[in-house]
Amino acid sequence: MNKNFIKYRGNPNLDLENIVSKSNSFYENIKQRKTIREFSKKTFPISVIENCIKAAGTAPSGANMQPWHFSISKRNELRKLLRKEAEIEENNFYKEKAPKDWLDALEPLGTDANKPFLEDAPYIIGIFAKNYGIMKNGKKVKHYYANESVGIATGILVTALHLAGLSTLTHTPSPMGFMNKIFSRPQNERPYLLLVVGIAKKNTLIPDIEKLPLEKISSKI
Questions:
Q1: Tell me, what's the pLDDT at 181?
Q2: Would you call 141 helix, strand, or coil by DSSP?
């Protein structure tokens, strides 16, 4: 046996007698996850965010390079700058960059260039992807499948936050270069996503939309 390998202890969740009901219970829970744009002022310990980020850090990654960084912002003065910079890009998007078919697709969701949640929510997580790492001697090390790896980690993070009882919003202003300066991240880290986290405001409204059924998103061969 390779000395760098250890014995796998098995999945602690394995329960063949109840495997179907457990999978369905998870689906019934996760299908209640909704994108929220109105957040209450209620706060909660940052350790909840940190625990969920630790869960995200268990994601598989190309060559185990773990090419992600999660930068947490509590409610502070930098949030005003974050909102300002994001809204500049969003205004450009809605007024100049977005083609009509894209705007038509967004219309049922009620989105626009105004992003108050960037100030209101108790936490914002700036997610960054590392296309390469930098060793102590300054040498660059390529990170393989960075986009895919960070995408998987982000999915785990969103799921973990939902299971903790929190609501989220994924926000991707384009371009996102301003994030490096605001979150004080180096240039080898590429902005990937802004994840807004908090507790949904009471009586908040969400779009009445449906997800595609199983037969539309899967097939058997």
A1: 94
A2: strand
